Amino acid sequence: MSEAVSFSPDPVVVSDKAVAKVKSLLEEEGNPELKLRVFVTGGGCSGFQYGFTFDELVAEDDALVEKGGIEIVVDAMSYPYLVGATVDYEEGLSGSRFVVQNPNASSTCGCGSSFSI
């Protein structure tokens, strides 16, 4: 596969807390080739849903964001929904999870894992 295209400015902002958590998870996995893939799928109570997975593969049309020694990958289909969004990591009473703060969303569900445009 070809190398992904790097964008400037970054299409997605990654918080320091998210970088630290990804680094921690990568150390646990023992595979430095893994990247955090952030994507959007249909479904959820507000129409679209955010997804997160680790992936070694990077497609030619993926957007690649590097920060603090980690890489975040966004596929071409999800890219328009995530431009300007911030990927963060939260720990609280409802558990710990990656979250997206998205200025493109016109509404979000109560738990913040789904949105509409």
Task: Provide a descriptive summary of the structure in words.
The chain has a seven-stranded mixed β-sheet. Strands 2-7-8 form a three-stranded mixed β-sheet. Helix content is 15%, strand content 44%. It has helices at 16-29, 79-82; strands at 5-6, 12-14, 35-42, 48-55, 63-67, 70-74, 85-92, 95-101, 107-108, 114-116. A hairpin with a 5-residue loop joins strand 3 and strand 4 (48-55). It has a single domain (15-101), classed as HesB-like domain (Hypothetical Protein Aq_1857, Chain: A, Sandwich). The longest helix is centred in the N-terminal third of the chain and has 14 residues, at 16-29. With 117 residues, the chain is an alpha/beta fold.
What count of domains describes the coordinates? 1
Helix percentage? 10-25%
Please identify which CATH superfamily we are dealing with: HesB-like domain
Which regions have little confidence, pLDDT < 50, spanning 5+ residues?
none
| Inertia-based shape | globular
Termini gap = 32 Å
Strand portion, in percent? 35-45%
CATH architectural grouping: Sandwich
Radius of gyration: 14 Å
Adjacency order of strands in the biggest sheet: 1-5-6-3-4-10-9
- CATH third-tier fold name: Hypothetical Protein Aq_1857, Chain: A
**Main beta sheet strand tally, sense and closure:** 7 strands, mixed
Order of helices and strands: EEHEEEEHEEEE
Mean pLDDT: 82
Count of separate DSSP helical elements: 2
Briefly, what CATH class?
Mainly Beta
Overall structural class, as computed from helix and strand content, comes to alpha/beta
How many strand segments? 10
